[in-house]
């Protein structure tokens, strides 16, 4: 029998699982409620968080607001601004109202200098804006190259663990993957937050793509305003403020963004087309999903859109990527095509199959509760749905039944205006 190896003095002792301290106890709230919601309470000491998004989304703004609030709360915060001068950062901080004495700022791009600064300052929180502009002159590659970005990040991860510092790295990415550097970091860091939004809207969404210290199901919502990012604690109310009731082609859908129910208005417009290939435009919806729903409407419900342009959109700059909004999209298109408005106290929930049948969307009760909270009184849902208090359910099995239930009958179908 081989002899058991002697345990090294550095070997950790195994402990009962119930005696281990929970991580939550040490979290530091950032003081930005929607950010804390996504982080499941705040930043964990010794952890590294990567904040990615397209240029101009508001990453630097979010970072500065969070550092300012943590500094106001007594944390020592160091911002390494590798893109903007200290004066530019001050100007922005002034606008955001975060001129806090314990928020320290240095403008530098050398990793060696950053490490020396951390020695000198001993911060609780360190933010690097951005990881693409920091570089180590001893390593090959230009700043922003995958090697540089990865090596610098790995060094900062070690630093975070050794010193118990909460580190946040900002990284630029583009939709077409042009700036791919930070993507190579996803497995190196503990948490990846993605900041996204539509350039033409003030709405910004923050999602956790990866989170070692909590759920990745929370969505954070902000509006970019004059004085930085404003939390949007009640997005459903915001999305519905400008709704004009009584218009054909409009219905409200309770969708789920992670764990968060949101009420959004789905709109459709049909217009006679002179083009050989009529136009299909989907805003905030997947165009392939819209194409499939148009085909089902035609084949299973007799609502033909072959000769018309179809525009479908989700109002307010939200992007809906789940099938739970299918029924609302189908009803909006049929309502626009037939030219009859659906009642405005009504919401629609459900996925549509190729047979025209309605299927359950995840967490229907949660969606119904949000609709009831905002004053909707009736919901059109798949036959098997369970109900919640305060909202009447109209249970249907198919698209055809759904259209009939909301007063859209095919004999009303008229030539498009
Ligand atoms: P920024 O945080 O610089 O984006 P990123 O770091 O992701 O590139 O900010 C993006 C935009 O937001 C910028 O064009 C200016 C605008 N902005 C406001 O509208 N209000 C504000 O208070 C601030 C600070 C910026
Ligand atoms: Mg920036």
Question: What do we call the CATH topology of the largest domain?
Answer: Rossmann fold
Mean pLDDT: 91
The CATH class of the largest domain turns out to be Alpha Beta
Task: Compute the number of helices.
Answer: 10
The outline comes out as elongated
- Multimerization status: single chain
Brief rundown of the structure:
With 417 residues, the protein is an alpha/beta fold. The protein is 27% helix and 25% strand. The protein folds into two domains: 26-233, Rossmann fold (3-Layer(aba) Sandwich); 238-405, Ribosomal Protein S5, domain 2.
What does this structure look like?
This protein has helices spanning 33-39, 59-72, 86-96, 111-121, 146-163, 235-240, 287-301, 326-338, 364-373, 399-405; strands at residues 48-53, 77-81, 103-106, 125-129, 166-172, 191-197, 203-211, 219-225, 228-231, 250-257, 260-272, 280-283, 308-314, 346-348, 351-352, 358-359, 378-382, 392-396. The protein has 417 residues and is α/β, with parallel strands linked by helices. The chain has 2 domains: 26-233, P-loop containing nucleotide triphosphate hydrolases (Rossmann fold, 3-Layer(aba) Sandwich), CATH 3.40.50.300; 238-405, Ribosomal Protein S5, domain 2 (2-Layer Sandwich). Strands 3-2-4-5-1-6-7-8-9 form a 9-stranded mixed β-sheet, with helices on both faces. The protein has a 4-stranded mixed β-sheet with strand order 10-11-13-12. A 3-stranded parallel β-sheet has the order 14-17-18, with helices on both faces. A hairpin with a 5-residue loop joins strand 15 and strand 16. Helix 7 crosses helix 8 (326-338). The termini are far apart. The mean pLDDT is 91. The site of magnesium ion has 4 residues, from helix 2.
């Amino acid at each position: 029998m081989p002899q058991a190896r002697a345990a090294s003095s550095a070997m950790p002792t195994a402990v009962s699982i119930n005696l281990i301290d929970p991580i939550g106890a040490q979290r530091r709230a950032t003081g930005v409620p929607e950010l804390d919601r996504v982080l499941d309470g705040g930043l964990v000491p010794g952890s590294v968080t990567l904040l990615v998004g397209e240029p101009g989304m508001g990453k630097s703004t979010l970072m500065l607001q969070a550092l300012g609030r943590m500094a106001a709360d007594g944390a020592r915060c160091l911002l390494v601004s590798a893109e903007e001068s200290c004066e530019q950062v001050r100007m922005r901080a002034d606008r955001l109202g975060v001129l806090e004495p314990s928020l320290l700022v240095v403008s530098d791009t050398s990793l060696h200098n950053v490490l020396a600064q951390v020695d000198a300052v001993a911060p609780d929180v360190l933010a690097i804006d951005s990881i693409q502009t920091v570089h180590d002159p001893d390593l090959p590659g230009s700043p922003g190259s995958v090697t540089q970005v990865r090596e610098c990040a790995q060094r900062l991860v070690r630093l975070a663990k050794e010193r118990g510092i909460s580190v946040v790295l900002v990284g630029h990415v583009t939709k077409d993957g042009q700036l791919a550097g930070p993507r190579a970091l996803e497995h190196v860091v503990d948490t990846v937050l993605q900041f996204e939004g539509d350039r033409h809207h003030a709405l910004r969404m923050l999602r956790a793509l990866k989170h070692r210290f909590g759920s990745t199901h929370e969505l954070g919502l902000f509006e970019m305003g004059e004085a930085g990012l404003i939390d949007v604690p009640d997005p459903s109310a915001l999305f519905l403020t400008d709704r004009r009731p009584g218009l054909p082609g409009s219905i409200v859908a309770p969708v789920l963004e992670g764990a968060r129910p949101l009420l959004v208005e789905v709109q459709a417009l049909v217009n006679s087309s002179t083009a050989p290939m009529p136009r299909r435009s989907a805003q905030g919806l997947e165009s392939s999903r819209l194409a499939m729903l148009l085909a089902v409407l035609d084949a299973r419900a007799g609502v033909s859109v072959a000769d018309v342009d179809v525009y479908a959109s989700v109002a307010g700059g939200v992007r809906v990527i789940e099938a739970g909004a299918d029924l609302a999209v189908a009803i909006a298109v049929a309502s626009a095509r037939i030219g009859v408005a659906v009642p405005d106290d009504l919401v629609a929930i459900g996925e549509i199959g190729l047979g025209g049948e309605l299927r359950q969307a995840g967490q229907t009760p949660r969606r119904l509760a949000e609709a009831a909270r905002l004053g909707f009184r009736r919901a059109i849902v798949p036959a098997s749905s369970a109900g919640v208090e305060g909202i009447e359910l109209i249970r249907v099995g198919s698209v055809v039944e759904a259209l009939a239930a909301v007063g859209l009958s095919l004999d009303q179908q008229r030539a498009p205006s």
